[in-house]
Amino acid sequence: MMRLPAPLIAKLLQSRIARFFRSAPARSLIQCVEPAEILHPGSAAPVSHDKMQSITESTAPVIWIGGSEPLDHPGIAHFVRAIAQGGHYVFLETGGTPLRRRIHEFEPLPRLFLTVWLDAPQARESALAVEGLRAARLSGFFTVVHSKVRSVSDIAELKNLRVFLGEKDVDGWLITTASEDHVVAGIAAEARSLIPTASWRRFSELVEQELLLQAKGRESYGTSLANKPPAESCEESIRVA
User: Fold this and answer.
1) Alpha helices in the chain, H assignment, sequence order
2) Is the pLDDT confidence value at 234 over 60?
3) In the predicted model, is pLDDT for residue 217 greater than 70?
4) How far apart are the two ends of the chain, measured CA to CA in Å?
5) CA 237 to CA 117: how far, in whole Å?
6) Which pLDDT tens digit goes with each residue over 80-134?
7) Which residues form the domain of 167?
8) Is the dihedral of CA 58, 53, 176, 104 positive or negative?
9) Is-contact 129 93, C-beta < 8 A?
10) Which region holds residue 161: left if phi is over 0, alpha if psi is between -120 and 50, else beta?
11) Of 210, 178, 176, 214, nearest to 61 (Cα)?
């Protein structure tokens, strides 16, 4: 397993220093993007150009594309290419099932990391994800596995996964908590010791922070909509669409 690429480490460090000395506006190191908010297949406006522009102009070094399955969107390959060519590092997180079928639509760019969530590679439901991961490696892509910890029992599976990843020569491994529960978060922190490379352990912590913030933001947004009068909620939905 390789270290996190040196240019990415340098970008993250520069952003931290700029934020520390306040010579640049406060900003996140990772920006999480939900493809469904940008790409609207089948609509009169399949791409939200305002949101697309805000992403390409983002000062965050890393754009994390996840949430609902990104590969369900027909325009995802063009979307990813535009962001990566704009100077950002892109982590495209997928369940991996459609990856082998759609891998030909992507280019193996040096700033693109195809990220497959995987906890138990021997599980029957993981077979297509493992095959997609293999196809990505053979096609010359940087590949990363993202494992989410839900309970202490997951550590045994992750120990087996570590051996599997070493055999498959995957480029990176991320371990994050699947819950804000402090006990589960502690288990995830312990599980990160299984990652053989320190830079990927530290990057896992950054990804975890941003994913938790994103989940909290969605929860708050859903609560605010639920508390609105019915007519106002409808009007908001029309305006956003």
Assistant:
1) 6-20, 49-56, 76-85, 99-102, 127-138, 154-168, 182-191, 198-226, 230-240
2) no
3) no
4) 42
5) 31
6) 998 998 899 999 999 999 999 999 999 999 999 999 999 888 777 789 999 999 9
7) 6-240
8) negative
9) no
10) alpha
11) 210
Whether residue 135 lies inside any domain: the answer is yes
Cα(152)–Cα(160) distance, rounded to whole angstroms? 14
Pairing of strands 62-65, 30-33: parallel
CATH number, domain containing residue 93: 3.20.20
Phi, psi of 31 (to 5 degrees): -110, 120
The pair of structure tokens assigned to 67 is 């949430």
Task: Domain count for the chain, please give it.
Answer: 1
pLDDT on residue 188: 96
Q: What residues have CB less than 8 Å from 25, skipping those under 6 apart?
A: 59
Backbone phi and psi for residue 105, each to the nearest 5 degrees, phi listed first: -80, -15
- Which is more confident, 208 or 34? 208
pLDDT at 15: 86
pTM of the model: 0.85
**1 is a domain residue:** no
CB contact set of 137 (below 8 Å; sequence gap of 6+)? 143, 168, 169, 170
CA separation for the pair 127, 132 (Å, rounded): 9
Question: SS3 for 47?
Answer: strand
